[in-house]
Specification:
There is one protein chain. The protein has 11 helices and 8 strands. By secondary structure, the chain is α/β, with parallel strands linked by helices. It has one domain: Rossmann fold, CATH 3.40.50. The protein has an 8-stranded mixed sheet with strand order 3-2-1-4-5-6-7-8, with helices on both faces. It is globular.
Length: 300
């Protein structure tokens, strides 16, 4: 049986999408395919230079693509607010893709631990600030990009930001578990939109090498680069679960989509997620903490 591919995406003419982290990897290929199928796409990127390069690559591949570049730094809530203010138009699809992985401990502009602050809090704030634009669309959808490593995560409510003890992989797992819990609560609170999660399996992107590079470990950087070359699937294939979650009429609110083969590679399908992400009380508690930290309050 043939698996779902980007060729199965329907006509998206008239639909508007925002993809965070669209300058490379999963975000780039997600934005490319959305534009290829007729959507108006905003590339929300931290680096203007890399964003412009991505914009020009998409226009070269799809000459009639309706793509625009937007400045967004998810590690700075003032940037998140400014971006949302610049994009008030009805929004059909929001793909919360940008992220960082396994970094040495760093703080965001607002003092949050970088992985929790970027991967979860930045997207939580962005989605809340774009909620009026989403509600103005006919059938809005939010896709939160998680990871198979969410299975390694746990919520340490007494030390969510690793101030007492910081372990970079534990922090990453917790941030990706947060993406799932956020999805569950967003879908529960707002039935007028569809909130889903997606993850790429093991896909070759820049994400794996950023942490070792920041840590100054050339050996680990080379090892992760070798793993990307020999084991990982290409980023264009890793983007398929994101695209399925963003466009398929068959998606189920609150569900997660990932690769069919052991959640590692292959065509997208609905996948099992860590039960603690939806454990009673957990999504609501994370929501309350997130509103308090970001100052962004969703109006039910």
């Amino acid at each position: 049986m043939r698996g779902w591919t980007a060729d199965d995406i329907g006509d998206l003419t008239g639909r508007r999408a925002i993809v965070t982290g669209a300058n490379s990897g999963l975000g780039y290929h997600t934005a490319l395919q959305l534009a290829r199928h007729g959507a108006s796409v905003v590339l929300a990127c931290r680096s203007a230079e890399r964003g412009r390069t991505a914009h020009d690559r998409i226009r070269a591949a799809v000459p009639d693509a309706d793509v625009a570049l937007g400045s967004l730094d998810l590690a700075d809530l003032s940037s998140v607010r400014a971006f949302a203010e610049r994009h008030p138009e009805p929004l059909d699809v929001l793909v919360n893709n940008a992220g960082v992985m396994a970094l040495p401990r760093r703080a965001t502009a607002d003092g949050f631990e970088m992985q929790f602050g970027t991967n979860h809090l930045g997207h939580f704030a962005l989605t809340g600030l774009l909620l009026p634009a989403l509600r103005a669309a006919k059938a809005p959808r939010v896709v939160n990009v998680t990871s198979g490593l969410a299975w390694t995560g746990r919520f340490d409510w007494k030390d969510l930001q690793g101030e007492r003890r910081y372990r970079k992989w534990a922090a990453y797992g917790q941030s990706k578990l947060s993406n799932l819990a956020f999805t569950a609560e967003l879908d529960r609170r707002f039935p007028e939109l569809t909130a889903v999660s997606a993850h790429p399996g093991y896909a070759a992107t820049n994400l794996q090498q950023t942490g070792p590079r920041m840590q100054g470990s050339r050996l680990l950087e080379r090892v992760t680069g070798l793993g990307n070359a020999l084991i990982a699937q290409p980023a264009r294939d890793g983007a398929l679960p994101l695209l399925y979650a963003a466009t398929s009429p068959d998606v189920r609110g609150g569900a997660c989509y990932g690769p069919r083969i052991l959640q590692y590679r292959g065509a997208p399908t609905e996948v099992v997620t860590p039960p603690q992400a939806a454990r009673p009380g957990v999504p609501a508690r994370l929501w309350q903490v997130s509103e308090s930290l970001t100052g962004v309050s969703y109006e039910d």
